[in-house]
What we know:
Blueprint: E1 2-9, H1 13-22, E2 25-28, H2 40-45, H3 50-58, E3 72-75, E4 81-84, E5 101-105, H4 116-123, E6 132-134, H5 135-148, E7 155-156, E8 159-166, E9 172-178, E10 181-192, E11 199-200, E12 213-214, E13 227-232, H6 235-245, E14 250-255, H7 259-268, H8 273-284, E15 289-292, E16 295-301, E17 305-310, E18 313-318, E19 321-324, E20 328-329, E21 342-345, E22 353-356, E23 371-373, H9 385-388, H10 391-402
Amino acid sequence: MSHHEVIILGAGPAGLGVAASLEGWHPYDNNGKNLLNINTKHLSDNGVRPIAHFRELHHPEDNTPYGSNKFNFKKNRRADWIILSDDAAGGLWNNVPANQLTLGPANWMELSHYPMKQYNCDNKNDINLKEIINKKNLLNYYKKFSTKLKLNDHIYNNHKIISIQKKQNGDFTIYSKFKNIKREFSCRYLVFALGPKSIKRQLGVPGENLDYINNSYTKPQDFPGKNITIIGGGRSSDWAAQELFDNKKNITYIMRQKKENHLRLIRESQFLNYYKRWHEIISNKERNMTILYESKVIRFSKNNQITYENNYKTQTIKSDHVIIEIGGLPNYNLLKNLNLEFHEKYDNYRFQLLQMKVHQHSFESINVENLYACGYLAQGTGLSVIGFHAGSFLISGDILKKLNLLP
């Protein structure tokens, strides 16, 4: 067994933010005060949300990306931490479509230990901080973040988490698989940062594992042939359908939701170019884009046939490829033995998941001591990295105080 004081599950932006502070990179204000020493419980008791306090320091002008960064980071003694993750630095961003865009400007996706402006300067990039950033640039930024702050030596990637237990002495035991070898780790403090889509949703219909069916979309070149069926209804499937359509494919788009729900998402997302394009496609009633609302797939057959139900009628079509983009869920099954409580989080932008109920001053679980929810999974966080990154300071600060590692 490999024991560490802190284990972070997940190498996405949420986990990297906590890791950077545990590595010793602490935020200081202009008077030289270590901000991790702030009594966040006192803030919370006096009506100030601690996550909002740190967020305003990072983005002072009403949480927009145009304010100056008021953090100064200095290196201190590191805590004994590691990250266990399926993916390398960047987490789930390693697996999204090649040209995928974020929902917010570049600054909204940055981690304050290494501002995007400084990243541009160091690497001679010209990323516009006020514009939407794509996957390639964002993933490169997270990888450079991990390299610059010397986190890579403590990131154990290609580790699939199998189960988590809490022992009588209070330590957590984590079992993982690495190259089909079962490994065992233990820690005193566990940071759960696996992200909102660590388990792919399944349709649960016959034939779902046939060769012509794909559980994710990458880029148009990976899908030869003329006829493509997309199953979904959210942003990821919208991206796949629109990009493939513009690459001269015939698209059949099957979704459960009503037409008015999809049109509202398109209407409210006109700040994104691909949704402007969607508005054109819908308005022009393009012949090669067939959208089947309030429909569901019944089965897939070996001869590339898809059987679905629409308007109470069963119909069958043929496609060269099927792409299933129906999102994912947090892998809370790993914590099923810990009797956790959850908070339902929904908004108009497909942010629909259960968040772990946590103390708002530390993001420690209200049910399990020394278990911390990170990123989207913590109650009280919002959409985009700007919505959750400030929580990394609440988590790391609380752990460092318990370890007596704050100067």
